[in-house]
Amino acid sequence: MNFTALADEFFGTGETSPVMMLVWILPIVLFVFYGQRIQLYITSGEIKKGIKKLEAFRDGSRAELAAYAGGLAGGGPDPGPRIARFLENFTIMPVDMDPAGIVEKVRHTVRSREDYTRRHVASMLPGAGGEELVRVQALLEIATSLQMVCRVISHMYLTAKRQNNYPLILPLQMLMPFVMEQAEAMRDAMPAFRAGQPVGDGIGPMVVGRMMLGLKKERAALETVLARTEIAGRKVILLKAEGPAPTVGRPADALAALSGEGLGAIIMVDAALKMEGEESASVAEGFGAAIGGTGTERFRIEEFAAGAGIPVFSIVVKQSVKEAITLMTRAIAESAGTVSGLVRQAIEENTEGGQSVLVIGVGNTSGVPQ
Amino acid sequence: MLGRGPPRTEARTLARCAGCGAEDVRAFAEGDALFAESECGSCGGASRVEMIFSEEVPR
Predict the structure, then answer these.
(1) CA pair distance A90, A92, nearest whole angstrom
(2) Whole-angstrom Cα distance, residue A198 to residue A201?
(3) Residue A207, SS3?
(4) What is the pLDDT of residues A330-353, one digit of tens each?
(5) How far apart are the C-alpha atoms of A301 and A359, rounded to whole Å?
(6) CA B42 to CA B51: how far, in whole Å?
(7) What is the least distance, in Å, from the CA of A322 to any CA of chain B?
(8) Could you read off the pLDDT of A181-193 as tens digits, one per residue?
(9) According to a count of CB atoms within 10 Å of the terminal CB, is the N or C end of chain A lower?
(10) DSSP state letter for A16
(11) Are A324 and B42 in contact (CB under 8 A)?
(12) Quick one: how many helices (H) and strands (E) in chain A?
């Protein structure tokens, strides 16, 4: 018997040898039947890393909030347990099967939550000042958002894993980079809000706040102030959230109270999300109400303006999500001068002498007084 | 650069004198507030905090 020939036949390098055939066929069989599962393992490993980071962000934000609130509590009871309870709170948005009246319902739900948070924080830290309480509210919002993101992503991941369902994990894999970008931005926002520094979103209040310096301020609505001045023969009403506490105020409520002023134009200054490839801190002008949030403020401003036939002009400073909620960059801060010039130009070009104009600085006024 | 992570940033305060135009850029300190006024180190006039911003610093 020629063993060499036999060994060659089975283990040789020829394409027809059984061993070589197995080398080719086995992976094909393996990938046909277990391909999705292998991909699931690889993908879930990446997602798991992301979830670990999200958990670290969530725990870090909680610890930072607890430390800040603990410092404000002084010798009072430890606010930690109440913060932990608050972080578990949820908001059920109204049913929108019948959209009639949905804006008012959303507004009511959001307002109720804001009022509850305000009362909750004030009772938790009775010795703290007004600005510090608003800061705690802002930090609480960030910590709650990170908690929610972490919970939803974990739920999607664990469901896909329990079902061994690869198609279910695909959308999660696609979503993760965007989720991580937002979560990292929220994590980086904490120090700026805690230290009372201006954030990118505060460019609108910064421009209007500077115009308000030296003028008499009036309370226009909750956490919202206005001042009156004259520019190029026009009566100009300047409106912004009351800084330097980190709040966005209630510009729509303030506008409703100004219905008897005979406004000739409304000019809104806000931060806007830049598109990929657009330069950060670039300034753009346009039409329509520039204001974010749930949409209820924008709806009411639009309704008021449309009802009274008042044109609404907008000036925006473009920036990324991260720039909008973290400490203002130098480029964004420097754009304030350009924006002020454009506001003056918009007043002169779009109204006539003697008319009233409302200029609203939209955005979070953290670290921006007036 | 790959593997170096995001750039490190620090908070800065920029104060500008309305009289002589002298600019003072310093590290942000607790208590610094936008539009707060202090005495100008150059001319003794009123220097106002015009910006509080983040700046990238070398690692």
Answers:
(1) 7
(2) 8
(3) helix
(4) 999 999 999 999 999 999 999 999
(5) 13
(6) 19
(7) 12
(8) 999 999 999 999 9
(9) N
(10) T
(11) no
(12) 11, 7
Contacts of A327 in chain B (CB under 8 A): 9, 11, 52-54
Please tell me the predicted confidence (pLDDT) of residue A289.
Answer: 96
Q: Residue B50 is inside which H or E element, if any?
A: strand B46-57
Residue type, A115: D
- Residue A167 phi/psi, 5-degree rounding, is -55, -30
Q: Which of A317, A287, A316, A288 is nearest to A301 (CA)?
A: A288
DSSP H or E segment with residue A18 = helix A18-73
Phi, psi at A218, each rounded to 5°: -125, 145
The Cα–Cα gap between A84 and A121 comes to: 13
Tokens representing residue A38 in the block = 């292998």
CB atoms B52 and A213 under 8 Å: no
Binding-site residues on chain B for chain A (CB distance < 8 A): 9, 11-12, 14, 28, 30, 33-35, 50-55
Q: Residue written as tokens 């003072």?
A: B24
Q: Do A327 and B54 touch (CB under 8 A)?
A: yes
Q: Which residues of A touch B50 (CB under 8 A)?
A: 333
pLDDT score of B1: 46
Give the three-state DSSP class for A92: coil
Return the H-helix or E-strand segment holding B9: strand B8-17
What DSSP element (H or E) covers A136? helix A130-162
* Cβ burial, residue A288 (10 Å; 0-12/13-18/19+): middle
Provide the CA B4 distance to its chain's centre, in angstroms: 27
Both tokens of A292, joined, read 């974010």
Q: Please answer yes or no on whether B33 and A326 come within 8 Å at the CB atom.
A: no
- Identify from B14, B52, B56, B57 which residue to disrupt to test chain A contact, counting A C-beta atoms within 10 A and taking the largest count: B52
Whether A198 sits inside 8 A of B35 (CB atoms) is: no
Q: Are the beta carbons of A248 and A255 closer than 8 angstroms?
A: no
Handedness of CA A291, A296, A301, A303 (dihedral sign): positive
How many angstroms away from the CA of A330 is the closest CA of chain B?
5
